[in-house]
């Protein structure tokens, strides 16, 4: 039996934290190791509690989830970060994903889906459906999309043709098994390609790969 996921809850609403605690603390596969009402002390709490995942509200009154996520990603061995929001088209969500968060969940996500999402994140898999990813990306306002496309195209050029094909498939929401079938390679090869992409580009997760492909090759994921 594997060790339980060590989870840190961060939300400025006590009732939300209480509800999450009730939903998630009943099983043996998740251990809530700490709570916070603001993003100010999240980095210290994450280190002290040795959290695997930080489940955190985006909008908080003092230090919001975006700033806290950026601080967490700067840690030597950062935990996975999953954002909670009541807004399914929040521009802060996409900024958080670009900063390295592993994904986001709406606050009304059913308990079973929430638990499954936490396990997926720890396993290194994305938790955003292609539909939700597209909705978020389509509604982002960027002050200079042309500059972003130039930057993304330059990053794409660092990849091999095989890595580009894998990156596009990731952006389309395909799982490792689906990518392997589509490209006629093994799942191990797909994982190796994704690992190389992350290392080359200094990314933390697949969501950042999807956002990069959208910026550089929007026709591939439209």
Overview of this structure, please?
- This protein has 222 residues and is an alpha/beta fold.
- The protein folds into 2 domains: 5-138, Response regulator (Rossmann fold), CATH 3.40.50.2300; 145-217, Orthogonal Bundle (Arc Repressor Mutant, subunit A), CATH 1.10.10.10.
- It has helices spanning 14-24, 42-49, 65-73, 91-98, 111-122, 130-138, 145-156, 161-171, 176-183, 187-201, 206-216; strands at 5-10, 30-36, 53-57, 80-85, 103-106.
- It has a 5-stranded parallel sheet with strand order 2-1-3-4-5, sandwiched between helices.
- Helix 7 (145-156) crosses helix 11 (206-216) and helix 8 packs across helix 11.
- The protein is globular, with a radius of gyration of 17 Å.
Fraction in helix: 40-55%
Work out the number of β strands: 5
Q: What is the rounded distance between the termini? A: 41 Å
Mean of residue pLDDT? Answer: 82
Structure annotation, total helices = 11
**Which sequence of strands runs across the widest sheet?**
2-1-3-4-5
CATH class membership of the largest domain: Alpha Beta
Please tell me the CATH architecture of the largest domain by its name.
3-Layer(aba) Sandwich
Question: Which stretches are poorly predicted, pLDDT < 50 over at least 5 residues?
Answer: none
The major beta sheet can be summarized as:
5 strands, parallel
Q: Round the Cα radius of gyration to an integer and report it.
A: 17 Å
Name the beta content range: 5-15%
Look at the helices and sheets and give the structural class.
Answer: alpha/beta
- Total separate domains: 2
CATH superfamily of the largest domain: Response regulator
